[in-house]
Specification:
Strand content: over 45%
Shape: globular
Strand order of the largest sheet: 4-3-2-6-7-9
Number of helices: 3
Helix content: 10-25%
Distance between the termini: 16 Å
Structural class: mainly beta
Order of helices and strands: EEEHHHEEEEEEE
Number of strands: 10
Largest sheet: 6 strands, mixed
């Protein structure tokens, strides 16, 4: 797998992971909305970051309570500037968000993977949306179910920053 993956235009011979979700507007507080999206193998070992908000990627990762699962798994402080630049983008706006990540040729080997979408809410509150997806050799599309974990619990002023979370493999 490549060291970094960026959002690219579709290519005929590439496989894609498509992440879509609704980033919800919350009343009563202004959420951080710092987001990191990454892939792990079936054993839970970190493989690659696909997307991280600019603020988080260029120093926000040093704040202990902001997306701590991603920071811990990715060992981000050791990533090269090339990788950081390749996956960093502006924080998405409230509304529907669709991110597609291309893998030329057979770069994403068939098998089972775990994807993670971590969102910082506020203070030390984060939400982790995760699930398993199978990449099939024949390129059959696959859609994954997602589960959310709130930690250290649900934020009393509002949780559920994301809704309608879907992750799909397409060839």
């Amino acid at each position: 797998m490549a060291a970094g993956c960026s959002v690219k235009d579709s290519a005929k011979d590439s496989a894609k992971l498509k992440f879509s979700f609704q980033l919800n507007n919350k009343e009563g507080f202004i959420p951080s909305n710092q987001i990191a999206i990454w892939l792990q193998n079936s054993e839970g070992n970190y493989l690659e970051t696909f997307f991280v908000c600019d603020y988080l990627s260029y120093g926000g990762y040093t704040i202990p309570d902001v997306c701590p699962n991603w920071v811990s798994k990715s060992d981000w402080q050791k990533q090269s500037g090339e990788v950081v630049d390749a996956v960093s983008q502006a924080t998405p706006d409230v509304g529907e968000v669709v991110l597609k990540f291309d893998f030329p040729g057979d770069e994403l080997a068939p098998g089972k993977y775990k994807y993670c979408i971590e969102v910082h809410v506020a203070e030390n509150y984060n939400e982790l949306y995760a699930g398993d997806i199978e990449i099939e050799e024949n390129g059959e599309p696959g859609i994954s179910d997602v589960a959310v974990t709130y930690y250290p619990g649900k934020y009393e002023k509002g949780s559920g920053l994301l809704s309608n979370v879907k992750v799909q493999f397409e060839k």
